[in-house]
Write a structure and sequence with these properties.
Elements: E1 4-10, H1 14-25, E2 30-33, H2 41-45, E3 51-52, E4 61-62, H3 63-71, E5 79-80, E6 87-91, E7 93-97, E8 102-110, E9 116-119, E10 133-134, E11 147-151, H4 155-165, E12 170-174, E13 193-196, E14 199-207, E15 210-218, E16 224-228, E17 231-234, E18 238-241, E19 248-251, E20 254-256, E21 262-268, H5 282-297
Parallel strand pairs: 1-2, 1-8, 2-5, 8-21, 10-17, 11-12, 11-17, 12-13
Antiparallel strand pairs: 3-4, 6-7, 7-8, 9-18, 14-15, 15-16, 19-20, 20-21
Helix pairs in contact: 1-3, 1-5
This protein binds flavin-adenine dinucleotide (FAD).
């Protein structure tokens, strides 16, 4: 039997969950479709133990606890796991298919974050053969006292440099530019952290499936430096793909079809939605969720 839902939210990351909590509060008819087998998006998958300090109204909270807080505000029976949406059609009613099940709704919220994505590699030979070259950490206690080379210049790299240099005194942060893309204030009190700017990775040495050192080159002088490592932690972000949805999501939270016509009942919020000066952080996504919620309920 066909069920027409009021609102379907694709993605149970922090932004999709926040939107769902607003629907729950107002007793709206909603359903959340999550492609993976767990709730929480990047926070659960990539950094459950990290403290988040930039969510409006919350001083500091562990990522996993923030997701728990959001989970408490929704009806978990309305979250379908392992429901990866592969196609969306809008013909008045919106038809959403996972390949196995077809769902129908009046309003659709796309909160798929980075979508299906893979980490951007370091880009050196033999990278794939080393299991101590990592791209995310669920728990970082095993990095205590280890020699860690962190690559990247965004907020994630800086956040990790701060966290890991607090538990190890042999941590290097390497970035290809003179200035960080992320907020340099994050690492200003990190006494154990050795910062290398502007350097790029050149090669690794490895033994028994483990990188043992990484050689970096100074961009301006071409000077080489070899750093011994227990772990190389690459923070170059993800190569994102917005699944196969036939929409562009570059114009704030409005979604346009292939003829650049604004979709009336489909909205994009969170990391999936990109526009000029938008940062991929939780706060802008929450703001988009608030705006879209007001728009569809006014
Ligand atoms: C290491 C790291 C540290 C960070 N630290 C901070 C921080 O301190 N503060 C901060 O504000 N931000 C931080 N961020 C950024 C923050 O995690 C993102 O901005 C946030 O996760 C975006 O939430 P989202 O719900 O839009 O997307 P996501 O968290 O990516 O969630 C999207 C969800 O949609 C699901 N999905 C994707 N495609 C489909 C599909 N086709 N069908 C069904 N489900 C689908 C995914 O499985 C996922 O669960 C950090 C990011 C990283 C990587």
């Amino acid at each position: 039997m066909k069920t027409l839902h009021g609102i379907i939210i694709i993605g149970a990351g922090p932004i999709g969950l926040y939107f769902a909590s607003k629907c729950e509060e107002k007793k709206l008819d909603y359903l959340v479709l999550e492609g993976s087998d767990s709730i929480g998006g990047q926070l659960t998958r990539l950094y459950p133990e990290k403290q988040i300090v930039d969510i409006p109204g919350i001083e500091s909270i562990k990522s996993a606890d923030y997701i728990e807080l959001l989970k408490d505000k929704i009806d978990l029976e309305k979250v379908v796991l392992d429901a990866h949406v592969s196609s969306i059609k809008n013909g008045g009613e919106i038809e959403i298919s996972t390949g196995k099940v077809v769902y129908f709704c009046k309003k659709l919220i796309i909160a798929t974050g980075l979508g299906t994505s893979v980490p951007r590699p370091l880009g050196v030979e033999h990278e794939n053969e080393c299991d101590n070259i990592i791209y995310s950490v669920k728990s970082f206690s095993h990095l205590k006292g280890k020699k860690v080379a962190i690559f990247g210049g965004g907020d994630s790299a800086l956040d990790w440099a701060k966290e890991i240099s607090a538990i190890s005194d042999d941590v290097h942060l390497i970035h290809r530019r003179l200035e960080f893309r992320g907020n340099p204030e994050t690492i200003k009190d990190c006494k154990n952290l050795k910062v290398h700017l502007p350097y790029v990775p050149i090669s690794i040495t490895y033994e028994n499936g483990k990188a043992t050192s990484v050689t970096i080159k100074k961009v301006d002088t071409e000077e080489l430096l070899t750093i011994e490592v227990d772990y190389i932690f690459v923070n170059y972000g993800n190569i994102a793909s917005l699944s196969s949805f036939p929409f562009k999501m570059e114009n704030a939270f409005l979604v346009v079809d292939s003829d650049n016509k604004v979709e009336q009942n489909i909205f994009a919020i969170g990391d999936v939605c990109q526009y000029q000066n938008k940062t991929r952080r939780i706060a802008p996504g929450l703001k988009e969720a608030d705006k879209v919620f007001d728009l569809i309920t006014c």
